[in-house]
Amino acid sequence: MNRATLFHQALRALACLPLLALATGPARAELQIDITQGVSDPIPIAIVPFARTPTDGGFDLAAVVQHDLDGSGRFRSMDRGAMLGQPQRSSEVVAADWRAARQDYVVVGRVSGGTGTSLNVEAELVNALTGQSLGLLRVTATAGTLRTAAHQVSDFVFQRILGTRGAFATRIAYVAVDGAPPSQHFQLLVADADGENPQVVLDSRQPIMSPAWSADGQWLAYVSFEDHVSAVYVQELRSGQRQRVSARAGVNGAPAWSPDGKRLALTLSGSGGNLDLYVLDLASQQLARITDDPAIDTEPAWSADGSQLYFTSDRSGGPQVYRVDVATRGRVQRVTFGSSYNARPRLSPDGKTLAFVTREGSDYRIAVQELGSLNGNVRVLTRGSLDESPAFAPNGMSILYAGRVNGRGSLATVSVDGLVTQRLKSDRGEVREPVWGPFSGTP
Amino acid sequence: MNTPKNLLLVLAGSLLLALGGCATKKVKPVAQNTPVASDAAQSSGASGNGVTTVTAGGQGVSGQGSAPVGVERILYFDFDSSEIKPEYVATLAAHAHALSANASIRVRLEGHTDERGSPEYNIGLGERRAQAVRRALLLQGVGEGQVSTVSYGEERPAVPGQTEEAWSKDRRVEIVYIN
């Protein structure tokens, strides 16, 4: 994030000061992307400042696009000061000039007033080698949604050049913890994928765990200990309406929304303390038991087609990843081998790759494994000692996870090919349990 | 089971929304058994990132009024183990004695792990520790209804820090007298 954005946010916050004084928690920009490793030959691209209009609130849209693309580790954006001109349309781009400045691509655009308070954002991508326009994106926004529009421009550029949908205009959820034990303060937050615009979903004096997005991006399921027992809740983000869907004796944990949004997989123990997987039908409240084993069975993750649950079980001694057929509740198959500790499976959106926590020596790290082949190809992607809670980006290109840096819980991403790593710097005491929201539900 | 109890105080949310542009937002009351729609309206427009904050109510911290005086209320465990160490035999006997002498006393056994590994798996390990203590109490005549368990896994460490000394204090069961 640049200084101008920070300043802009500070100004807005000041304008809202009387209201803020009553707010329960800080809602400043608390995560900042800090790229720690990128590809060796990032694509040079010039993001020319967009033409502005008086009603755009002074928002520097191109700066956000620049920040997104640089943060991806796949691009290196041109310094504005080195630009010879600032064209606003593809027809004004003199390809030879940008080629001479060693740029492969040029993004130009403009923000203009529409009807009422609406704004029109137009962005064009030009191939500097050929001078050809690679497409025009039109987005309607308001002064308050220009940041989202900027992320949509980033998605457009990313898609056109790399052929994969960008995930800049998506959201993440995570848990922040302030204070030292035993008097800690817990918050569940939702923020834009770049860490901006953090908003508090739940504020509690007791632990909050395991946030999980609904497939439509409108709801979160989570575990809250607010009554000194664990309970699973589902909450609509916009309205704050929530429902306690499971507060049975013992453990109520690890909620995971089915791809069709109708069911919740979760872990229950009953008073006997044996953790097994269940599936709760949200409309009927019908509960179906999926596993029945004296071991710990937990951390369910749905396959993309909703037919199987991947989960952690220590039925063989230590924790390993297994899968079970949901409909037949049978055919439990072990999926991970190798390390004596493999836990917390998560599937890539295309269902081909499994991410999980693995132990290497005394270190806990994030690994991926291709599911097609037997015993296929485990690759350890991270180098921390306490890495946990992997979650795929909705485009499957990277994995968001929690780790410890200098003793503090913090969030990071690693690309699935291992080439790009980013740290999301935080000014909170601790941040953990990140989950990346779906494409849908993005405003 | 499905009756939402003491669900929430929804107030602060509209204030936090203010950061999105000083807009205020009416908070709908929470309906009991709100149907969970999978086809909720798509968000759009300026308030698309709108999030309403819920403040969890919850109960205050329990007292330890009925706890036997001078008896340790925390049992520590070895790494990856839910086995009760021999040194706690007398401690557990004292708790069992106090509980079986008065059937109206209830305890909550809070199981904890250190921070290493996956949080939800650690909930399972913490529950195992709490259950080990529960079984020991029941074997000594304590009524089932007097003992409940909760596992906090790695969420509530006793001592912050990434040392074996800190971790050894985190792996524990706390016996909390509820009334």
Q: On the 0-100 scale, what is the average pLDDT of chain A?
A: 90
Structural class by secondary-structure content of chain B: alpha+beta
- Helix % of chain A is 10-25%
CATH superfamily (homologous) name of the largest domain in chain A: TolB, C-terminal domain
Distance between the termini of chain A: 21 Å
- The number of distinct helices of chain B, counting runs of at least 4 residues, comes to 4
CATH fold name of the largest domain in chain A, please?
Answer: Neuraminidase
Morphology call of chain B:
globular
Quote the beta fraction of chain A: 35-45%
Oligomerization state: heterodimer
Major sheet of chain B: size, sense and barrel closure?
4 strands, mixed
Look at the structure and give the mean pLDDT of chain B: 77
Q: Which percent range describes the beta-strand content of chain B?
A: 5-15%
Succession of helices and strands of chain B:
HEEHEHEHE
Radius of gyration of chain A: 23 Å
Q: Biggest interface in this structure?
A: A-B, 102 and 81 residues
Low-pLDDT runs of chain A: 1-28
Q: What is the topology, as strand order, of the major beta sheet of chain A? A: 1-29-28-27-26
3D architecture notes:
- The complex is a heterodimer of chains A (443) and B (179).
- Chain A is mainly beta and 443 residues long.
- Chain A folds into two domains: 38-162, Rossmann fold (3-Layer(aba) Sandwich), CATH 3.40.50.10070; 171-436, Neuraminidase (6 Propeller), CATH 2.120.10.
- Chain A contains five helices and 30 strands.
- Chain A has helices spanning 3-15, 17-20, 61-71, 95-100, 146-162; strands spanning 31-37, 43-47, 75-77, 105-113, 119-127, 133-141, 171-178, 185-192, 199-204, 208-213, 219-224, 231-236, 242-246, 252-257, 263-268, 276-281, 287-289, 297-302, 308-313, 320-325, 333-334, 342-347, 353-360, 363-370, 378-380, 388-392, 398-405, 408-415, 421-426, 430-436.
- In chain A, the strands form seven sheets. A five-stranded antiparallel sheet of chain A has the order 1-29-28-27-26, with no helix packed on it.
- In chain A, strand 19 and strand 20 (320-325) form a beta hairpin.
- Chain A is globular and about 70 Å long.
- Chain B has 179 residues and is α+β, with helices and mostly antiparallel strands.
- Chain B has two domains: 1-58, no CATH class; 74-177, 2-Layer Sandwich (60s Ribosomal Protein L30, Chain: A).
- Chain B has helices at residues 12-17, 89-101, 119-139, 164-170, and strands at 54-55, 74-76, 107-112, 147-153, 172-177.
- A four-stranded mixed sheet of chain B has the order 2-5-3-4.
- In chain B, helix 3 (119-139) links the parallel strand 3 and strand 4.
- In chain B, helix 2 (89-101) packs across helix 3 (119-139).
- Chain B is globular, with a radius of gyration of 22 Å.
- Chain B starts with 11 loop residues before the first helix and ends with a strand.
- Mean pLDDT of chain B is 77; it is low at 1-48.
- Chains A and B meet through helix 1, strand 9, strand 12 and strand 13 of A and helix 1, strand 1, helix 3 and strand 4 of B.
- Strand 9 (199-204) of chain A pairs parallel with strand 1 (54-55) of chain B.
